[in-house]
Amino acid sequence: MAKPKIVLVGGGRHCKVVISVLNTLGTYDIAGICDVPDKLWTTILGAEIRFTDDQLEQLFNSGIKNAFVTKGSVKSSTERKELFEKLERIGFSLPSIVSGYAIVDESVRIGSGTLVMPGAIVNADSIIGENCILNTGCIVEHDCVIDDHSHIGISATLSGTVRVGECSLIGAGATVIQNLTIGKNVTVGAGSVVILDVSEATTVVGNPARIL
User: Fold this and answer.
1) How confident is the model at residue 18 (pLDDT cuts 50, 70, 90)?
2) Is 149 an annotated catalytic residue?
3) How many CB atoms lie within 10 A of CB 26?
């Protein structure tokens, strides 16, 4: 039986790791990647950049019903959010993609368009929103809530019952201790240790983390 086709939107370095996970899972046939015209006909891990973003509606009408945002987020999730919402408006199905090398408790709820990378651990009763990135080796402990379009960086740790607001970034190797709330549009710098709630639209760095 033929595998369903999926189009990947964004042909940068983050796309490479998504392709790697998809290749390992074997659940989708990558129809191609969308990016800017200058990148057309180049390849990423054997997948070709065949389309531009203005062809997405045409691709949907041609019968490709699955899409995934493969543009990464450093500092800002704005472009990822805009792409996700555009794909939703067109009507694409946006699956969650969970590496077979991640550990995710069966009680965890994961929203559409979210990527869980190899080595990530997501423990009991956590809720992960839409279009999130749970990067390699991160730990999301029990009863955490991560709102839409957020990014938990490589080897970052959320202790139990942490809330991360929409469009926030927890940097690589950062730690957020238990029972804290991280607001919307927050950046927690790499390696930081957060011991207090963080208000929205704030950048914090250091150990203990302080407003930058």
Assistant:
1) very high
2) no
3) 9
What per-residue confidence (pLDDT) applies to 1? 75
State how far the Cα of 29 lies from the Cα of 6, in Å rounded to an integer. 6
As to burial, measured by CB atoms within 10 angstroms (0-12 exposed, 13-18 middle, 19+ buried), residue 111 is: middle
3-state helix, strand, coil in the chain (%, to 5): 20, 30, 50
Determine the average pLDDT of the residues in 7-33. Answer: 97
Q: Are strands 187-188 and 203-205 parallel, antiparallel or unpaired?
A: parallel
Tell me what pLDDT residue 88 has: 98
Residue 43's beta-bridge partner residues? 48
Contacts of 38 (CB under 8 A, 6+ apart): none
- The strand pairing partners of 169, in sequence order, are 151, 187
Q: Is 4 in contact with 25 (CB distance < 8 Å)?
A: no
**Two tokens at 137?**
């080796």
Tell me the pLDDT tens digit for each residue of 115-138. Answer: 999 999 999 999 999 999 999 999
Q: 3-class secondary structure for 68-129?
A: EECCCCCCCCHHHHHHHHHHHHHCCECCCEECCCCEECCCCEECCCCEECCCCEECCCCEEC
Catalytic residue among 14, 142, 149, 151: 142
Q: Which two tokens stand for residue 75?
A: 């500092």
Residues making up the chain, counted from first to last: 212
Residue tagged 């940097």 (tokens): 171
In whole angstroms, how large is the CA radius of gyration of the chain?
17
